Amino acid sequence: MLEVSTIGLDLAKNVFQMHGADGSGAVAFRKKLRRDQVLKFLAAQPACTVAMEACAGGHYWAREIARLGHDARLIAPGYVKPFVKRQKNDAADAEAICEAAQRPTMRFVAAKSEEQQAAAMVFRVRDLMVRQRTQTINAIRGHLAEFGLVAAQGLFHAAKLVAAIEDKGTAIPEAARPILSLLVAQLRALDERLAVLDREIARRAKEDAEARRLMTIPGIGPITATALAALAPSATTFKRGRDFAAWLGLTPLQRSSGGKQKLGETSRMGERTLRRLLIIGASAAVRWAMRKGSTGDPWLSRMLERKPPMLVIVALANKTARIAWALMAKGGTYRAPAVAG
To answer: Which of these, 100, 110, 109, 54, lies nearest to 79 by C-alpha position?
Structure first.
């Protein structure tokens, strides 16, 4: 019987597929197991590398398998896809995971602890409620437009639509007013829940020493600082700040060939919550600098003179990400660049 060195595990809800291979890549076994059989089977196996895709439940299984003495590895699904041969099914996926894990240059995702996943939950829930609030406002806006009532876009102007619904003198049919009132009640409930989450994030920002240091960077507030502390992997995962910015998706896509370098739009890879928060912070900084007509940052001033605002926003978000990595990796606080006299 072949000595198994790597096991590819295709995760699922109930039925899991395994693919075992020896050091040369030869197939040792293919097995289909129910959820409650997975850990029992792996406990009976000699210590080896068990690889999975970094998907829903992946970090849980990595922790449980590592407790059995195996080397649990998580791989980004995008890095597994090139190894799938022809037809896609569970067995082919497990084999592709196994082959990908045996590549010497493969990049793996660090498994998160329960505490890290719990800390990240507040941002996931907040994102969900922000999307629900936006959907509710858009529903109110669309329904009232049917009766000739419109307002400018934005959360601030939604209050005018709410006031129109509650005003008995507006030209809204009485049959529609109770239904619209339900949307208003839902909107207010979401605002209250978001306020609770924002207070929780502010509390964490005050108690977390790393978040307080990150808040010294211009464009990073309590939400972005605590999100960086909770969602970003360890700074030691990246060799330099440029790698961290690339992981966030704040670097351009390359379409280079024949020695000619061609750069496209930002890659949008990595953690989208952090990328969005950094871009929002950079956007506020750029708008403030354009409104004032000057800025204390010489680099930002030069960029605004030569480049369009949206490009400057993404470039500033990239720079902020690199500064954040430096603070997380080396400690200290942000020091503003000196302005030449």
So the answer is: 100
| C-alpha to C-alpha distance for 295 and 82, rounded to whole angstroms | 47
- The pLDDT value given to residue 339: 58
Residues 244 and 322 in one domain: yes
As beta bridge partners, residue 51 has: 8, 73
Q: Is residue 109, in this structure, part of any structural domain at all? A: no
Give the 3-state secondary structure of residue 176: coil
What's the gap between Cα 138 and its chain centre? Answer: 25
Pairing of strands 27-34, 49-53: unpaired
Give the structural domain span for 30: 6-101
Same structural domain, 260 and 315: yes
**pLDDT tens digit string along 214-232?**
999 988 999 999 999 888 8
Give the residue among 72, 341, 320 at the shortest CA–CA distance from 216: 320
Which is nearest to 271 in space by CA: 311, 227, 309? Answer: 227
The token duo for 332 is 């200290």
> What's the CATH number where 82 sits?
3.30.420.140
Among residues 129, 252, 133, the alpha carbon closest in space to that of 200 is found at: 129
The single-letter code of the amino acid at 158 is A
Report yes or no: 298 and 276 within 8 Å, Cβ to Cβ.
no
The answer to whether residues 291 and 297 touch, using CB atoms and an 8 Å cutoff, is no
Q: Are residues 79 and 161 in the same domain?
A: no
Low-confidence ranges of the chain (pLDDT < 50): none
**DSSP labels, 204-237:** HHHH-HHHHHHTTSTT--HHHHHHHHHHSPPGGG
pLDDT, position 176: 92
Residues 172 and 143 in one domain: yes
Backbone angles phi, psi at 261, to 5 degrees: -90, 125
What are the DSSP E strand ranges found in the chain? Answer: 6-10, 15-21, 27-34, 49-53, 71-75, 252-254, 263-266
Distance CA 312, CA 305 (A): 10
pTM over 0.85: no
Phi, psi at 190, each rounded to 5°: -65, -40
Number of domains in the chain: 3
Please say whether the beta carbons of 126 and 194 come within 8 A. yes
